[in-house]
Amino acid sequence: MLLPILLLSAAGFTVLTTEFVIVGLLPAVARDLDVTVSQAGLLVTLFAFTVAAFGPFLTAYFSRFERKRLFISILVLFGFSNLLAALAP
Q1: Residue pair 53/64 in contact by the 8 Å Cβ criterion
Q2: CB under 8 Å to 72, separation ≥6 — which residues?
Q3: pLDDT tens for residues 55-86?
Q4: In what helix (H) or strand (E) does residue 24 lie, and over which residues does it extend?
Protein backbone atom coordinates (compact mmCIF):
# COMPACT_ATOMS: atom_id res chain seq x y z
CA MET A 1 0.00 0.00 0.00
CA LEU A 2 2.91 2.34 0.65
CA LEU A 3 4.41 2.07 -2.87
CA PRO A 4 1.31 3.37 -4.72
CA ILE A 5 1.09 6.31 -2.33
CA LEU A 6 4.77 7.14 -2.84
CA LEU A 7 4.43 6.89 -6.62
CA LEU A 8 1.34 9.09 -6.61
CA SER A 9 3.10 11.64 -4.42
CA ALA A 10 6.15 11.65 -6.68
CA ALA A 11 3.98 12.09 -9.77
CA GLY A 12 2.09 14.99 -8.18
CA PHE A 13 5.32 16.65 -7.09
CA THR A 14 6.81 16.28 -10.58
CA VAL A 15 3.76 17.70 -12.35
CA LEU A 16 3.44 20.67 -10.00
CA THR A 17 7.16 21.42 -10.14
CA THR A 18 7.06 21.40 -13.93
CA GLU A 19 4.06 23.72 -14.01
CA PHE A 20 5.56 26.28 -11.63
CA VAL A 21 9.20 26.23 -12.80
CA ILE A 22 8.29 28.66 -15.60
CA VAL A 23 8.00 31.48 -13.06
CA GLY A 24 11.73 31.29 -12.34
CA LEU A 25 12.53 31.14 -16.03
CA LEU A 26 10.50 34.18 -17.08
CA PRO A 27 13.51 36.46 -17.68
CA ALA A 28 15.11 33.86 -19.97
CA VAL A 29 11.81 33.21 -21.77
CA ALA A 30 11.28 36.95 -22.25
CA ARG A 31 14.79 37.33 -23.63
CA ASP A 32 14.37 34.39 -26.04
CA LEU A 33 10.98 35.62 -27.27
CA ASP A 34 12.16 39.25 -27.40
CA VAL A 35 9.33 40.48 -25.17
CA THR A 36 9.19 42.09 -21.74
CA VAL A 37 9.11 39.98 -18.58
CA SER A 38 5.55 41.12 -17.89
CA GLN A 39 4.46 40.02 -21.36
CA ALA A 40 6.12 36.65 -20.82
CA GLY A 41 4.33 36.48 -17.46
CA LEU A 42 1.05 36.56 -19.34
CA LEU A 43 1.92 33.02 -20.48
CA VAL A 44 1.53 31.86 -16.88
CA THR A 45 -1.75 33.74 -16.61
CA LEU A 46 -3.00 32.27 -19.88
CA PHE A 47 -2.12 28.76 -18.72
CA ALA A 48 -3.91 29.27 -15.39
CA PHE A 49 -6.98 30.69 -17.14
CA THR A 50 -7.07 27.75 -19.55
CA VAL A 51 -6.89 25.25 -16.69
CA ALA A 52 -9.63 27.08 -14.79
CA ALA A 53 -11.87 27.35 -17.85
CA PHE A 54 -11.52 23.82 -19.20
CA GLY A 55 -10.75 21.85 -16.03
CA PRO A 56 -14.35 21.16 -15.00
CA PHE A 57 -15.38 20.13 -18.52
CA LEU A 58 -12.39 17.85 -19.00
CA THR A 59 -12.94 16.31 -15.58
CA ALA A 60 -16.53 15.50 -16.49
CA TYR A 61 -15.50 14.08 -19.85
CA PHE A 62 -12.64 11.93 -18.57
CA SER A 63 -14.65 10.58 -15.63
CA ARG A 64 -15.99 7.87 -17.93
CA PHE A 65 -12.54 6.28 -18.33
CA GLU A 66 -10.74 3.95 -15.93
CA ARG A 67 -8.72 6.19 -13.60
CA LYS A 68 -5.56 4.12 -13.33
CA ARG A 69 -5.13 3.68 -17.09
CA LEU A 70 -5.99 7.34 -17.73
CA PHE A 71 -3.53 8.55 -15.08
CA ILE A 72 -0.70 6.41 -16.45
CA SER A 73 -1.46 7.50 -20.03
CA ILE A 74 -1.45 11.17 -19.06
CA LEU A 75 1.83 10.79 -17.15
CA VAL A 76 3.47 9.08 -20.15
CA LEU A 77 2.25 11.86 -22.45
CA PHE A 78 3.45 14.43 -19.91
CA GLY A 79 6.90 12.84 -19.74
CA PHE A 80 7.17 12.61 -23.53
CA SER A 81 6.15 16.26 -23.90
CA ASN A 82 8.77 17.33 -21.36
CA LEU A 83 11.39 15.26 -23.17
CA LEU A 84 10.53 16.99 -26.45
CA ALA A 85 10.72 20.38 -24.75
CA ALA A 86 14.10 19.53 -23.22
CA LEU A 87 15.50 18.49 -26.60
CA ALA A 88 14.11 21.51 -28.46
CA PRO A 89 16.68 23.99 -29.80
Answers
A1: no
A2: none
A3: 999 999 999 999 989 989 998 998 999 899 88
A4: none
Q: How many other β-carbons are positioned within 10 Å of the β-carbon of residue 7?
A: 11
Q: How far apart, in whole angstroms, are the C-alpha atoms of residue 85 and residue 89?
A: 9
Q: Check whether 19 has a pLDDT greater than 80.
A: no
Q: How far apart are CA 78 and CA 74, in angstroms?
A: 6
Judged on CB neighbours under 10 Å (0-12, 13-18, 19+), 41 is middle
Q: What radius of gyration, in Å, describes the C-alpha atoms of the chain?
A: 16
Count structural domains, the chain: 1
What residue numbers bound the domain in which 48 lies?
2-87
